Structure formats: structure tokens, C-alpha cells
């Protein structure tokens, strides 16, 4: 009985195809077009992956140590293995307008890719958000609030800052928790290195500040209510003092009170600060708690993730390759 049903079903499909052919529908042409569309989509993905891989190879590891260095070296090794596969060395351009077939990069002596410029991702164009500008587009400088944090957040942030247009994102205000003894020191070293490159002293407009934590590690949730309110008051005072045009953060819980105050200011029309959140590269399967709060409450104007599967899970996030 089952075989008879299968035969009937097969005959039905064949008859449908024959009917379409008799009506003048070019079934072979349609199939060829679908195959071509799928091929073009595949090539587009290869282009995107190649751009991302070039940024990985261009990362400067001379100033990295410890786990951070091991992670970057492992990523570079993964890229090299990927391009050592002969089947990936070239692929044909299948439609008008595509460039010539691309050869794999020379892994032995990779040409330095252009430094990742955040203007490509929107940081330099922070003059438009939906329907309201945050600043005058003719303004040369954008006061930038940079939130630092322990546990690797500061190292990732400094890597990000090292490839940004630092002359445009100035003055810079670095903020870390009062119990964080290392982050501001690393920021000072970065600013001194930056100043040495252009033979200048660290600008007086660059400030290093501290903020109270909403909750310490291991602190009970009951007592954290009071500390959270105190942190919000402190964040309010800092935001009124700094008045940043751009807020840049990448995961530490310290950023939540500052972003919350900035969001309230935007809602009330008091001050328009553009919030950029770049999720840590360590977050592969899900957003951190800070990222999840900013995403769910729509606080962040732009939220970037560094793994494509995260962008699929959180559609409003942006994936433009690895940024750190």
C-alpha cells in the first residue's frame, strides 16, 4: 500500500513538471537561476570571511602577553590553516561586477592590512541615529567616555582604541571602578605610548576617573540595592560633569549605571550621547549580562558582537568580524 502511494506521489510530481513545461515554463532555466543565486551568495560569504581574516592577520602582538597573546596567536594559526587548503585559494567570479578570482594571501609574509578604522562601523559617523543627530557633523572632535574593567575588558578596549581615529575621539575620559587598581594604569600607559608616537605630552583634556560599583563580587543582592542607588547617583554626577558625545564600553558591569543615565538623558532630551557596546570576544554563545541588559532595554545605539552565531541569536546586534 505504501509503495502504491509513493508511486502515485512520484507520478503527481512528474505530471506537474510536464504540465508546467507544456505551458511554456522553462524549468531548466529556473533551476539554473536558482543555482546561480546560491553560488553568488556563497561567494559573498567568502568575501566577508576573507576581510575578517585579513584583520586577524594584521593584529599587532608585540605588546601582548599571557592569555591574550595565546588567543590571538591561535586565531592567526587558524586563519593560516584555513588558507593552506588548496581548494580555498581561488574562486571564480560568477556575475558581472565581481572582481577577478582572489588568490589566498601569502601566509609566509602577509601584507599588512589597513588598520581597522571604526569609521567603517559607524563610530566616525556618529552624527546620525534613526532620526536625530547627536552632534554637529562639522565638529572635528567628539568627547568620548571609555569604560574600563578588570578581567580582560581593559586589554580588549585598549586594543580597540589603538586602531581608532584618536584625534577625532577626543577629549577622552577613562572610567574604572574604585576597586580596580590596574585598568587606569594601563590606560595611562596607552595614552603615553600614543603621545610618544606623535612627540607630544598627554593632553590635559584626557582624564582618568573612578566610579563606585553597583555590586561587588560576592555581595548580597539585598545590600546591593543601596550600593546600586549610590552608583547611579555617582554616574549622574559624572555624566553631568563629562557630558560625553560618545560612550564606548565592552562588558564590565560598571558601564550599566553610566549607560542608564545617558539613556534617561536621551529620553528626556537633555543630552544625546551615542552608546557603542562591543561585546567581548570571549562571548561566543550568548551575550554577557551587561550586553543583554543593553540589548533588551534598547539602551545601546549600536551593539557589536564578534561571532556570527551571536548575531543570528540577537538580530539587532551587528557582526563585522573580529574587532579585538
Strand and helix map with partners:
Elements: H1 2-22, H2 27-57, H3 66-83, E1 144-147, H4 153-161, E2 172-177, H5 183-197, E3 207-211, H6 221-242, E4 246-249, H7 255-268, E5 274-278, H8 289-296, E6 302-305, H9 308-313, E7 318-319
Parallel strand pairs: 1-2, 1-4, 2-3, 4-5, 5-6, 6-7
The helix count comes to 9
Instruction: Give the strand content.
Output: 5-15%
CATH architecture of the largest domain: 3-Layer(aba) Sandwich
Shape: globular
CATH topology of the largest domain: Rossmann fold
Report the uncertain regions.
5-13, 86-122, 124-138
Going by helix content, strand content and strand pairing, the class is alpha/beta
Query: Mean pLDDT, rounded to whole units?
Result: 74
Tell me the name of the CATH homologous superfamily of the largest domain. Glycogen Phosphorylase B
Counted beta strands: 7
Radius of gyration, in Å, reads 26 Å
The SSE string, one letter per element, is HHHEHEHEHEHEHEHE
The spatial strand order of the largest sheet comes to: 3-2-1-4-5-6-7
